[in-house]
Amino acid sequence: MGTPVVRPPLAAGQGTTVLGWVLPHVIAQVASQGHDAEPLRQLLKARNLEDPDLRVPESVAQEVWKQAARITGDEALGLHVAESLPRGALDLVEYAFRSSSSLGLGLARLARYGRVLSDRVAARAQAQGDDLTLIVGDTGASPLHSARAEFSLAVALRFARDATGADIRPHEVCFAHQGPEETSEFARFFRAPVQFASGANAMVLARADADRPLLGA
Q: Do the beta carbons of residue 197 and residue 176 sit within 8 Å?
């Protein structure tokens, strides 16, 4: 596996960047649904998508997600991309998660080291009472595309289920953006109450689930 490169903070006006690791999976998901993914490849032309250290401008990543959602008309695109990821897709960030002693620690590491993946998204795991809340913050001036926000929480839950071997069901899942008219895919995947237009992107887990040991610890 390639090693993510941690770069110094960007100078003013230089713009934010993200690791391009997920974009080939977005393109593959579009193609798997029978759509022409060439417009997405054109957005990334002259870039080696097989390079695990590839960074692309945040604006390009946002446009890829936006166009993928438009081409497919898939209102649950973020969930479907998360479900399609092969094991190890997040490289060493995923290794840090899977090698943790408990799910709570794994999510904290995923939030911490996830900042290597993106200059824009800043996640944190927050314990309160009998709950553990994973919050995905957005530092961008414009709203994060809804599919990207949904992907962020969906991939965390998918990893949680896979790494514990348990059918983890959150207490609640919240998204800042307006929801689609049809929400059955969200109910199927999260198997929990999902709130839209809530002002935040967050997922609440029971402390008992957060304390579960991971199979790869």
A: yes
